[in-house]
Structure prediction request, 236 residues.
Amino acid sequence: MTEAILDAGPLIHLAELDALDVLSDLEILRIPAAVWEEVANHQPKALKFPGLPLQRVVAPVPSAALQTLAQALALDRGEVEALSLLEIYPRAWFLTDDAAARLVAEQRGCEAHGTIGLLIRSVRRGQRPAHEVLDLLRSLPQKSTLHVRPALLDAIIQQLEIEWLRGLRP
Amino acid sequence: MVETTAMVKLPPRLAEQARTYVRLGLFPDLDALLAEALRRYIETHQIELLEDYIRQDVEWGLHGHD
Prediction:
């Protein structure tokens, strides 16, 4: 069973791109209360998307080690709550677009992914056709608040075009 | 060092939240709040690390085994 704990980034960014459906094959999406509040403030439609197994959960008090790391890396409340939930559900994926939060999660042995990975995965999983995801990636700078250096985004799109077009050849 | 002056457009809700912070006395004015927000953003968004994670995610998205 694939379950995930979400930070605000992927929920907000996927909602901006009208692509929340790429999360629909995950069985449980746990959203810490602080993340829920943040998303409700900035992109409330993300919390009302039909068919997503969203669960608002109250995170436990973070461990002393996590509190120290959170302070050192200037993690926000939502990130800390998500990371403290990962202490209870270490096999869950951590979905975040924040590098510092992801660093902490991966150092603790957790699997973490972000918005771009989820979009690309949706093609592999047959949820979205390749051309749609390429269009979404091209529209990222205009439609989303996920900031990616244009040269990197171009290189990713080029790599995907090669991979996916090669896959279509007989 | 010379200070830079910038004009920013904020969405209404965000602007209202920012004004609340100033009204509560957490910041002397909007300039100070925006400078602090910018400093924290730059401090916490390490470009190399972020881009490394994005590249890893591209590979996972393409060839992951889930």
Q: What stands out?
A: The helical segments of chain A are 8-16, 33-42, 64-72, 77-86, 99-107, 115-124, 130-143, 150-168. The interface with chain B takes residues 2, 41, 73-75, 98-100, 102-103, 112-114, 116-121, 123-124, 148-149, 152, 156, 159-160, 163 of chain A (CB under 8 Å).
